[in-house]
Design brief:
This protein is α/β, with parallel strands linked by helices. The chain has helices spanning 14-27, 43-54, 76-86, 93-96, 102-106, 109-112, 138-169, 185-202; strands at 36-41, 59-65, 120-124, 174-176. A 4-stranded parallel β-sheet has the order 1-2-3-4, with helices on both faces.
């Protein structure tokens, strides 16, 4: 429903757009409805896996880069609520309902992990330690780097837990855990290049 904390007057329906409306349009331009991959970073990592899990006729590859893949873990629902408020006073209850709503479980990769069986998966998270792409300057630069370190460390914990979950289910996936890297674009660019051969193979696009 519309987010009632920021006077939003429309309802965002991203799953409908990405799995119905956009494919309908792209099909008129010769783009396949069934031979696609999806990749998300940060909070988009869990979203990418969600779309791939529930729309298996559409996706052959899915990837999470520095994603949050165990949304039922202690504190995660509260963290998402705070993040959405910070991003523009969005009310998370308008997205998935109150914390006890089944929509939260539907969108939790840790819960729907069995639905990912048979997909080509590439999942990564770095250590959170600053690396070659971190060159902070001034107070703002150091603050942002520290924030990126914390976000990536949390993603690493979540991704490691998800790795154990998939292993317990016997679902193969490519996992990458760079020894250095924070929650930042250049590190995701590096991971995208690493994932590229697997993406092309999954889509038979060589």
């Amino acid at each position: 429903s519309p987010s009632n904390l920021n006077s939003q007057d429309i309802t965002y329906k991203w799953e409908t757009f990405l799995t119905q409306q956009l494919p309908d349009y792209l099909a008129t331009r010769g783009v396949s409805r069934s031979n696609n991959g999806i990749l998300g970073l940060s909070m988009g990592g869990s979203a990418a896996l969600t779309l791939a899990a529930y729309h298996r006729d559409q996706f052959k590859f899915a990837s999470s880069l520095s994603g949050y893949l165990n949304l039922s873990a202690p504190g995660m629902r509260e963290a998402i609520r705070i993040a959405m408020l910070d991003a523009g006073r969005f009310n998370v209850d308008a997205m998935w309902g109150p914390p006890w709503s089944p929509s939260w479980l539907r969108n939790d990769p840790f819960v729907f992990a069995p639905k990912l069986e048979g997909l080509s998966l590439y999942i990564s998270a770095a250590s959170g330690l600053p690396g070659q792409h971190d060159n902070p300057e001034g107070f703002a630069g150091f603050y942002n780097t520290a924030n990126a370190m914390g976000l990536e460390a949390l993603s690493l914990v979540q991704t490691r837990a998800f790795q154990v979950k998939l292993a317990a289910l016997g679902i193969p996936a490519t996992f990458e855990f760079p020894s250095r890297g924070t929650h930042a674009w250049k590190y995701w660019e590096d991971e995208l290049w690493k994932a590229r051969p697997q993406i092309l193979e999954a889509l038979n696009a060589f």
